[in-house]
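Narrative summary of target 7.
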Amino acid sequence: MTCRVSSDAPLPRILVVDADADEALLVEGYLREGLGGAELPVSRALSAADARTALAADPPDVLLLDVRAHDAEAFALLEEMKVAGSPVPTIVLTGRSNAEAALHAHRLGAAEVLVKPSLTPASLAATVRFATQLEESRRKEAETERALRRAERQAEALVASSLDIVSILDREGRILFTSPSTEKLLGHRVETLVTRNVVEIVCPEDVEAVRAALKRCLESPGTTVSVEFGVRRADGAIRLLEALTTNLLDDPGVLGLVVNSRDVTERHRSEDTLRRLEAAVEQSASIIFLTDAGGTITYVNPAFTRTYGYTREEAIGSTPRLLRSGRHDAAFYAEMWATLAAGSTVKTEVWNRARDGRLVIARASIAPIRDRRGTVTGYLAVQDDVTERNVMNERLRLAQKMEALGHLAREIAHELDGVLSGVLSGIDAAAALLPEGSAAAPLLGEARAAAARGEALGHELLSFGRGASMELARVGANALLRDAAAQLRGRIGPGILLHLDLSPEAVVVTVDRRELAHALVQLADFLLESLSPGRTLTLGTTMGPLSEPDLEALAPGSGKSWVILTVGDDGTPMDEETRGRLFEPFGSSRTPGRAGGLGLAAPFGTVKQAGGFLFAAPVERGNLFRVYLPPAPGADPA
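Modeled conformation, tokenized:
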């Protein structure tokens, strides 16, 4: 309990125990005179038994206990209070000086022993203050002791339960103390390590680093030095430790180097794994990028920048909308985000647009990234550019289809040629027998014209099927364009301009001049079907490599220089449906209901038979056909 000792503090509550009521009253008077007058709270008890009851009910601040000679009951009360650790200071009063009794009372915890005949109000007041001060000092000392013991137990518990190794070394590096966690982490029993030098268990390649760290620590008392090193476990395994060493040699409570060592083996393995993963992602041919939960791009790998042309600085902070090509509608993206919101992975093929306007077809896998609580914190997108593969597959499919159709066309052409040859011969014979001015002559003329058109169609079929012989000759590329232009001038409608864009670098090619010029006219006719007045039809020549996606797979050596003939316009671009059946026989007219004959399958076959390639190139405005032809050996510009 709290004892009041200051003269300015509240008056102490005092219990006087004396079997003699007169003497008790005298002591009470002295107390009131010396301490607080009539307001001093003083209570009395006639016996040790009554005092015991009062102490249990309401302990006073000071107990004045009268002890007579051989007063066993009073001494028993003192002993009980001592055993119980009572905080009430006790002043023993005796009737006469008795050294033996006074010594016994002090042994039992009495603060002071006073002889009644020698009492004065001042001496009694001083003794009461002394007793309360002494008890307060004892209480504080006991509290301090308890706090120290508690702190020691807490420190011991922390060291014992810590996953880190706590050690104390002397200035030579010998181990003075090491925590129980040493055995858990390293397998060495504590007692086998104490007095050993710490470098004895350090991996040889790290010994110098540890010695250097200890030296730095010794040179700077109070500072903390960090070092990482390998330690060999008792079973021979190597663990990596990160140690923080503090020089407390001057601290009288420590007198050593305090080392806190943490096992960082798994951290290093995780960091190594992350470094390998980062290297794999950075070097991956797949396009990889990360976004946060809101869809903002936070990382892109080099394959992203190579494929789409955006730098990291441009991409990070943007959203994947940066890549939208316009080929997918809102429902496509809504379904994708709904799948991701449900926690599932999206696997799809998406058409993106690169920075330079190129279309990129990507096979994409998009997955949510979750933290340890399962909350989605972002998304991982992995894409593979399949543009070239798709184009190659489509062209291989078309090539196989055209090969089958070519075989069929050859068979039909041969049969048609035999039939029409007889028909034409018969018509010519019949016409020769008719008298001049016969009414049947015009009819035979129409029949012969129809048969001639059939014969021309048969020739187209034979050419398409690569069954017709070609009259190959060296001819200048520009001359081919001029031939085609000469044929087109009579076909072009009013208001449509014809423009020739001839390159002086264009060289000689080896082709059937008539057939190639006719193929160019067929391409121009296709464009003229929907070209309105005020527009321009352009024929051009140039030199360059094959620039069509993945054509190297179809044409080895496509990186060399080719002669390129172009037929284009600035009219309305063809729709996807038309583009999809562009080179199919009888299917490439742009005018609904109009028969197309072989259509663009005929020039496709002609170009292919000449060893070249024909493509409908995607352009932002209008339409463009490119014909690639190999230059003639030793060809010069023409």
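The CA atoms of residues 515 and 606 lie 7 Å apart.
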